[in-house]
Structures are given as C-alpha cells and as structure tokens.
Amino acid sequence: MARHTINLGGTGISSIDPAIRERTGVRELYLHENQLTALPDWLGEFTELRILDLSHQPLKALPDSLGRLKQLEFLYVSDLEIAELPESLGDLASLTYLGATDNGLTAVPASLGQLTRLIELRLYGNHLTELPETYGDLHALRELHLDRNAIERLPATFDRLTELRVVSLRANALTEFPVQLSRLPLLRHLDLRANHLDTLPDLGPDAFPALEKLDLRWLDLPVVPEWVHTLRHRGCAIYRTAA
After folding, report:
1. What digits encode the pLDDT tens for the residues 76-114?
2. Where are the beta strands (DSSP E) in the chain?
3. Cα-flanking dihedrals φ and ψ of residue 113, to 5°?
4. Predicted confidence (pLDDT) at residue 154 exceeds the cutoff of 90
5. pTM
6. Residue 155 to residue 164: CA distance in whole angstroms
7. Own/partner long-range contacts of 93-101 (Cβ < 8 Å, ≥24 apart)
8. Which domain of life is it from (predicted)?
9. Quick one: average pLDDT of 174-200?
10. In terms of DSSP bridges, do strands 143-145 and 74-76 run parallel, antiparallel, or are they unpaired?
C-alpha cells in the first residue's frame, strides 16, 4: 500500500513540490502539521484519493478543486485559518467522515446536505450559530459533534436523521430544547451541557426510545419533567449538576 500513499505530514513544508503530480494511483495523501498557507488547484487531479489530511497548519482557504475527489472517504481540515468551506465539498459523493474542527467558521455550506454517505461530522470549536435545513438529508449520519459553537437551535429537519447515535452540543447557545431529536429511533448519547436552557418540554413516555446517556450538567433547570425520570428508570444515565 505504500506506493499508494504520500506522507508529507509534519515535515515543515510551506509549498508542495509539483513533482508529486506525476504519481498515479495515490489513495492516501497526508499534508498535516506543516506550514502551508495555500493549496494548488491541481490537488483535484488525485481522483483516486480515499484519505486527505490537511489539518493543523496556517491554510487560509481550501480550493474548489477538492470537489473533484469523487472517491474521497475521509477529509481532515481541522485547526486551519479558513473562514469558510467551499460549496464544492458537497460534490464528494463518497465522503464518510468530515472533520472541520477548531477553525473560524461562522457558517457551513448547504451543499454538504448532499453527502448521503456521510457517517460522522465534526464541526466543534467554530463560531456557528445555525446549521442549514439541508443537513436533515444526511440520512447515513451516525455522529454529529458540534461542541463549542454558538448554535441557538437545530433545524426541524433533524428528525429525519434516523441513523444518528451520538449528538454532542456542549457549550453552545441553545435556548430551545431540540425536541426533534427525541423522535430518533437509534440516538444513544445526547450532550447538552453548558447551554442556555432553563426549561425542558413535556414529552411523552416514548421519547428517546434508545437513549443511554443524557448530559444536562451546567443547565439551570428548576423543574425536571417526568420523561427524564422515565429515561432513568429505563436505564439511561442522566447527568445533572447538583443543586
């Protein structure tokens, strides 16, 4: 497999040698932990890539040509200096994992809702206040990590994410409890720590049918409704800050 891999991670480069364009059949390209501030458009020529790691360096932008990587499955673009993700990432039809954490993102493209094979989406450590309604079309999504943003509410369409197992919303700005998540049949872990919630809605006894962990710490909740007790009696671990 080594001949299908280019690993330049952690080598301190500030530009990419154009000679690597001559390599064919490359499936894994590691460029993380370098000093790159820009990427050449010709990275889109590596159309057999399955893994691309660009994380942890001062990149200012991602080229639109990344959308040509139709076989890409894993994309790591964390801890950069980017202000946005290109709309062309919605063309990555084979993508199963996207990590775009600890950037300066204030919004994310609606086009990502086209990633119907996406299993895990990590967007924590940004400046997001909302997510597009189109993300309700991510029907394969199992894990959604949104900690440390400024999200005020989730799209109503999230009740369509029937494969979701994990949703982490710690340290956001939620003022409305995400009732749509209570209808998800496979959701196991929900983290709502350190939000702006001061009430919980009244839900029926069938809410959160598969939930195993609900984290409500650092919320000002003077009253806890009956469905929370029902979850606890069912074996769900409930975490609350002591009064």
Report:
1. 999 999 999 999 999 999 999 999 999 999 999 999 999
2. 5-7, 28-30, 51-53, 74-76, 97-99, 120-122, 143-145, 166-168, 189-191, 213-215, 237-239
3. -65, -10
4. yes
5. 0.97
6. 15
7. 93/117, 94/70, 96/120, 96/140, 97/73, 98/122, 99/55, 99/75, 100/126, 101/125, 101/126, 101/145
8. Bacteria
9. 97
10. unpaired
Residue type, 160: R
219: CB partners within 8 A, 6+ apart? 192, 193, 194, 195, 197, 198, 240, 241
Report the C-alpha gap between 197 and 218 in whole angstroms.
Answer: 10
Would you say residue 3 has pLDDT above 90?
Answer: no
Q: 3-state class of 182 per DSSP?
A: helix
Contact (CB, 8 A) for 167 and 187 = yes
Q: Would you state the structure tokens that stand for residue 131, as one six-digit string? A: 């997510």
Return the number of other C-beta atoms located less than 10 Å from residue 57's C-beta. Answer: 20
Hey, how many other C-beta atoms are within 10 angstroms of the C-beta on 19?
Answer: 7
| CATH topology for the 2-239 domain | 3.80.10
- CA neighbor of 84 nearest in space, from 110, 114, 63, 104: 104
The two tokens of residue 181 are 């998540």
Whether 190 and 167 have beta carbons less than 8 Å apart is answered as: yes
The residue to which tokens 């080594």 are assigned: 2
